[in-house]
TrEMBL record:
E.C. number: 1.8.3.1
Keyword Endoplasmic reticulum: no
Phylogenetic lineage: Eukaryota, Viridiplantae, Streptophyta, Embryophyta, Tracheophyta
Domain Oxidoreductase molybdopterin-binding: 53-235
Entry keywords, A to Z: Metal-binding, Molybdenum, Oxidoreductase
The organism's place on the tree of life at top rank: Eukaryota
Example of a GO biological process term: sulfur compound metabolic process
PANTHER family assigned to the protein according to its UniProt record, in alphabetical order: SULFITE OXIDASE, MITOCHONDRIAL, SULFITE REDUCTASE
UniProt name for this protein: Sulfite oxidase
A Pfam family that the UniProt record links to this protein: Mo-co_dimer
Domain Moybdenum cofactor oxidoreductase dimerisation: 259-388
Keyword Oxidoreductase among UniProt keywords: yes
Length: 393
């Protein structure tokens, strides 16, 4: 029996937290309630969103598990968990966000294809593992390499889960070799999440973490690493997770004209309020998360209580009680920033949040202008309705 295998049915799924909102049962896709998402800076493993495309793989014998590293390199190798554990260990606090986060709101404009997510297909964890740049050195690829001698330019990660989009084949994705071999990009082969061994849902025994990039590239249940000349040709790189303008529909789509999405764009959402709220007259707390992709900082989070006419600035923090400064070198550069503002809502209104990153990128105002048929990257201003009533609900 192999060390790691992908079952063909859902009879051996792990137990999950009862608070999760299940968006699809098989494959299992679920997110925590809004209010629970931001009670902690580091998201508890149980509450962290779970995004799968097939049944959860099974480890029969961890002693027999190994990752093969092969392709356009001189010395292909099979690495056991011990080989990975023997490398220097890094703990990287990084936010993972599904490109489909906030898809449900986009689907209200026009139908989109995909799992309906509210605003919690995102989480922040401390990932422990070896740097991919160190792993690549074991097979003779020096740090900061963009092309190997035999023409390798991309690093492909292949799993074992059986995905229907791949006609029963495994999930796979790739990133450029220049990013993979750059130790400062902090790409990890992670075996721990929040100080515990990874659990099955999140990729046990070993997964990739690509900080600052959409979750789809952080392949779980890693089986092999291939050094290849062209980006991975798998479904999730070539026929999914690409950005299209609103004019593209299922009749005129040409997948090959677009790049696979990598860095996620500046995002923020209010988690302290549901879509529609009835509140008592007075101060309300508007709090949530902001996340800038690509290792950029969160420069500002703006809150409006009049639908976007006037704005106040929210306070930002990563560590409780310590104000966040976007260019501080001690920040967790790959992690989200929580925000809070106390505002007055004297009458029924729309409360809006939008964030600005350190490259001055801003979230687009309307979801219509970024609508796309797959419902990805909905980063439009996050809006909630507040009705001021006589009694709080
Ligand atoms: N093997 C494998 N890796 C995968 C996936 C998958 O279905 N199979 N889903 C991807 C997507 S789309 C996301 S958003 C993240 C979700 O990671 P999580 O379930 O640990 O939150 O895993 C990525 N890695
Ligand atoms: Mo995703």
């Amino acid at each position: 029996m192999p060390g790691l295998r992908g079952p063909s049915d859902y009879s051996r799924e792990p137990a999950r937290h009862p608070c999760l909102r299940i968006n699809a049962k098989a494959p299992f896709n679920a997110e925590p309630p809004r209010s629970m998402l931001i009670t902690t800076y580091v998201t508890p493993v149980d509450l962290f969103y779970k995004r799968n495309h097939g049944p959860i793989p099974i480890v029969d014998d961890i002693e027999r598990y190994s990752v093969s590293v092969r392709g356009l390199i001189e010395n292909p190798k099979m690495l056991s968990m011990k080989d990975i554990w023997d490398l220097p260990k890094y703990d990287v606090t990084a936010t993972l966000q599904c490109a489909g986060n906030r898809r449900t709101a986009m689907s209200k404009v026009r139908t989109v294809k995909g799992v309906g997510w509210d605003i919690a297909a995102i989480g922040n964890a401390v990932w422990g593992g070896a740097k991919l740049a160190d792993v690549l050195e074991l097979v003779g690829i020096p740090k900061f390499t963009s092309t190997t001698q035999s023409g390798g330019k991309h690093v492909e990660f292949v799993s074992v889960d059986m995905c229907k989009e791949e006609n029963g084949g495994p999930y796979k994705a790739s990133i450029p070799l220049s990013q993979a071999s750059n130790p400062e990009a902090d790409v990890l082969l992670a075996y721990e999440m929040n100080g515990e061994p990874l659990n099955r849902d999140h990729g046990y025994p070993l997964r990739v973490i690509v900080p600052g990039v959409i979750g789809a590239r952080s392949v779980k249940w890693l089986d092999s690493i291939n050094i290849i000349a062209e980006p991975c040709q798998g479904f999730f790189m070539q026929k999914d997770y690409k950005m299209f303008p609103p004019s593209v529909n299922w009749d005129n789509i040409e997948w090959s004209t677009r790049r696979p999405i990598m860095d996620f764009p500046i995002q923020c959402a209010i988690c302290s309020l549901e879509d529609i709220n009835v509140i008592k007259h007075g101060k309300i707390t508007v709090s949530g998360y902001a996340a800038a992709g690509g290792g950029r900082g969160v420069e500002r989070v703006d809150i409006s209580v009049d639908g976007g006419k006037t704005w106040v600035e929210a306070s930002r923090y990563q560590k409780p009680g310590i104000p966040y400064v976007s260019d501080d070198e001690n920040n967790d550069k790959w992690a989200w920033v929580l925000f809070e503002a106390k505002v007055d809502a004297p009458h029924s209104t729309e409360i809006v949040a939008k964030a600005v990153d350190t490259a001055a990128n801003v979230q687009p105002e309307s979801v219509e202008e970024i609508w796309n048929l797959r419902g990805v990257l909905n980063t439009s201003w996050h809006k909630v309705q507040v009705r001021v009533g006589h009694s709080a609900m």
